[in-house]
Structure formats: structure tokens, C-alpha cells
Write a structure and sequence with these properties.
Layout lengths: L3 E3 L4 E5 L3 E5 L3 E4 L6 E8 L6 E9 L8 E5 L18 E3 L4 E9 L5 E10 L8 E11 L4 E5 L2 H4 E2 L6 E4 L7 E5 L5 E6 L6 E2 L6 E8 L5 E9 L1
Antiparallel strand pairs: 1-2, 2-3, 3-5, 4-12, 5-9, 6-8, 6-10, 7-9, 10-11, 11-12, 13-14, 14-17, 15-16, 15-18, 18-19
Amino acid sequence: MKQILPLVFFLFLVLSGFSQLIVEPAIVDGKVDKGKIDLEFIISNAGSEPDSYFWDLLRTESFPREWEIQVCDCVSCYAFGTETAFCDTPCSVDPGEQFVFKVSIRPNGVLAVGILEFRLYEVCQEDSSIMVNTTLTYNISETSSTISIDKSDSYIYPNPALNYFQLSGDEEVECIEILDMTGSVISLDSHKSGQRHYVTDLDKGIYLVRMMDKNNEVVKVARLITD
């Protein structure tokens, strides 16, 4: 069972009735000249029984092939290039314990906006056991970089969307862009609070919705699923 509780600073996902995945913070600032930029998850077991997890990362077409990925989980900090958990070494967490899950990017001088999909499993590599499926957006520029975690369920409803979607917490949003998973903009619309945005022209799939304020600054990025 998975229950999503949208909060301002944290995203709590109840896993298997026992554990919680706590993702913080939403955005991390970093410098490219540090050689790599890090994003950390805190995975804790708030239940009364031990629990185990497996993970993997999927590169979208927008993610530069020159970028290298390094993961640190509860077992080890792996060499750059390991993007899937080993099925014989799950992350096991006892009740009341937690560990830090870190995804680092080494851009190797390539400036871009790259998107990763992050998935967490109960059973290794079995899609039917996926407990978390979200996106990590890395925006690496010459002067500074940011990483954001998609909290789409907090901002878009209904999601999945059949005919249209609306936004919550949209007081600052003046326009939206809809992007496919390659990062290409396929739609641009103005926005007013409470407005419906129709998706009947979109193919069934996963998209990103970029929300911008009156100064054309990005205030939120959320994932949209269309049926």
C-alpha cells in the first residue's frame, strides 16, 4: 500500500505498511567546479518490522551520455557507472533506523538540463513491486547548479489525467510548459488559478509540467501522467 502525504518541505511515502521514504530537501544548490553535485534521500523505517529495498536509475533522452552517475546506498558507495542495485545486496533497514541514499552527478564539463527516473522496489527488478517512481532534474550551468525532486502528486490533479488537469498551490503560476521525457517543450499555455489544462491531444505517457511565474522564473516542476 502506498499513501502520499503532500507537505511543504517533505514527501512521506508509506511502504509495505511499515516504512517511510523521506525525501529532503526539494532543491540542492551546488557548484560545477566541485567536480560533482550531490542529492541525498533519507530512507527510514518507522514501523515495527525490518524492511528491504532495491533501486534503479533510468536515464531519459535528455540526460547527457557524458554525465557520470555515482550512487551511495546503505550497502556501499559504488563506482561511477553503477545505476542499478545488485539483487543479492538489498538495503535492509531495522525498525527506527535510517540511511542516506545519495545520487551524485559528474558532468565532465557538459552543461545541460538532465532528467533521471528514480525507482524503488520491494522485489529486485520486478515492476509490479515498484513502491516509488519519481524524477530527478539536474540543471547544471556555468555558475551554479540545482537538483530538484519531482513532487508531482502535490501539485497536479487529477494525476493520472484523462481529459484535463489542474494545479494546486498555483498562486504564483502565470504560465506552464509541458515537456516530454526528452526535455522537449510540446505545449506552452498561460495559467490562472483554478484553470483546467486539457491533455486530449497528448499521447498516453509521462510528461513534465514546468510552472513559471510572472518573471518567467521556474517555481515548480511536476510529473504528469496521461491516460
